């Protein structure tokens, strides 16, 4: 069932009601949004805080492989890295999850058993989402049956951009119903939504329909997570909790590659949604190359020198 609070029940009663609600949201001041995101990104971080932030960022990563050439061996190797990112330092936290296609979910589940690392599976005809609803739901059922803890679905951007908001809402509700105990991340593909107003509308649409997380991107298009679009989504989850009491997670994905980038996003979280979102249950990074840079920066803080090129594994 969607997490819609009684105050919003009328908003989802019909396509016209949902359109009125979404288009009645305050317009986004693009200049102000980008200026605030840039300003927060200039905050200086002291060494002790940086060490904490690096470990926190590692613990928030969904270590991902979503390629046509994925093999069981590659997934098992990625799972091993997720559990023990730095074999030379057992104090390094494990990542939040490993994210794979549904046909690799069972392999990931077996490799991660007892580790505390979650298995996330993309579904609903990822990344384009161009399939009939029954095909999308079968995709979700396969992933859940394989033991996935989390489902990352993509919305129908064509339906959203043509104003068929109720269709998108009903698909999210249907996918949520198939998730069972798995948490649902709803991917908007913000690079295809064109405007900040659309990103705000998509955020509220996803939350009204029962998303446990709202996620920027698939990582498969030119424009993925940015500080500005993530800030906008953080504002949305903050406002949603204020009005409903329901907390929703946020996951920026794609294009976050360095420790400096990751720390900027953590500042956005702390200053916008609040300190209680600084936890892997409520904030994730969809990234793989990011982990290597975090590990090298972590060693630099502990030893005073950067590692050689063989220090980290190549994903």
What does this structure look like?
By secondary structure, the chain is of the alpha/beta class. α3 crosses α12, α4 runs parallel beside α5 (105-112) and α10 crosses α11 (227-244). It has 13 helices and eight strands. It is globular and about 60 Å long. Helix content is 48%, strand content 10%. The chain has an eight-stranded parallel beta sheet.
Short description:
The chain has 13 helices and eight strands. It is an alpha/beta fold and 315 residues long.
Rg (CA only): 19 Å
Helical coverage, percent range: 40-55%
* Beta-strand proportion: 5-15%
Question: What order do the strands of the largest sheet run in, or round the barrel if closed?
Answer: 7-6-5-4-3-2-1-8
**Gap from first CA to last CA:** 37 Å
Number of strands: 8
Let me know the largest β-sheet.
8 strands, parallel
The helix/strand series, from N terminus to C terminus, equals HHHEHEHEHEHHEHHEHEHEH
Structural class call reads alpha/beta
Tally of alpha and pi helices: 13
Segments where pLDDT lies below 50 for 5+ residues? Answer: none
Average pLDDT, all residues? 93
What overall form do the CA principal axes indicate? globular
């Amino acid at each position: 069932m969607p997490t819609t609070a009684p105050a919003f029940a009328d908003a989802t009663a019909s396509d016209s009601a949902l359109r009125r609600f979404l288009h009645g949201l305050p317009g986004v001041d693009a200049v102000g949004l980008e200026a605030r995101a840039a300003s927060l990104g200039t905050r200086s971080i002291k060494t002790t805080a940086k060490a904490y932030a690096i470990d926190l960022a590692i613990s928030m990563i969904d270590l991902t492989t979503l390629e046509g050439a994925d093999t069981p061996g590659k997934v098992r190797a990625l799972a091993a890295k997720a559990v023990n990112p730095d074999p030379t330092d057992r104090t390094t936290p494990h990542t939040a999850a490993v994210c794979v296609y549904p046909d690799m979910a069972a392999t990931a589940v077996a490799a991660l058993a007892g580790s505390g690392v979650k298995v996330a599976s993309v579904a609903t005809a990822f990344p384009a989402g161009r399939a009939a609803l029954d095909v999308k739901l079968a995709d979700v059922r396969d992933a859940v049956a394989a033991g996935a803890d989390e489902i990352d679905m993509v919305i129908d951007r064509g339906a959203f951009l043509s104003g068929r908001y109720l269709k998108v809402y009903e698909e999210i509700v249907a996918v949520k119903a198939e998730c069972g105990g798995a948490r649902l991340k709803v991917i908007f593909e913000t690079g295809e939504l064109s405007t900040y107003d659309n990103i705000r509308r998509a955020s509220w649409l996803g939350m009204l329909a029962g998303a446990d997380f709202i996620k920027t991107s698939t990582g498969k298009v030119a424009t993925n997570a940015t500080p500005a679009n993530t800030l906008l989504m953080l504002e949305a989850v903050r406002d949603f909790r204020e009005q409903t009491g329901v907390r929703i997670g946020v996951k920026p994905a794609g294009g976050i590659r360095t420790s400096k980038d990751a720390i900027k996003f953590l500042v956005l979280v702390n200053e916008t949604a609040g300190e209680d979102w600084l936890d892997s249950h409520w904030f994730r990074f969809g990234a793989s190359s990011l982990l290597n840079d975090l590990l090298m920066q972590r060693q630099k803080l502990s030893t005073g020198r950067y590692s050689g090129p063989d220090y980290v594994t190549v994903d």
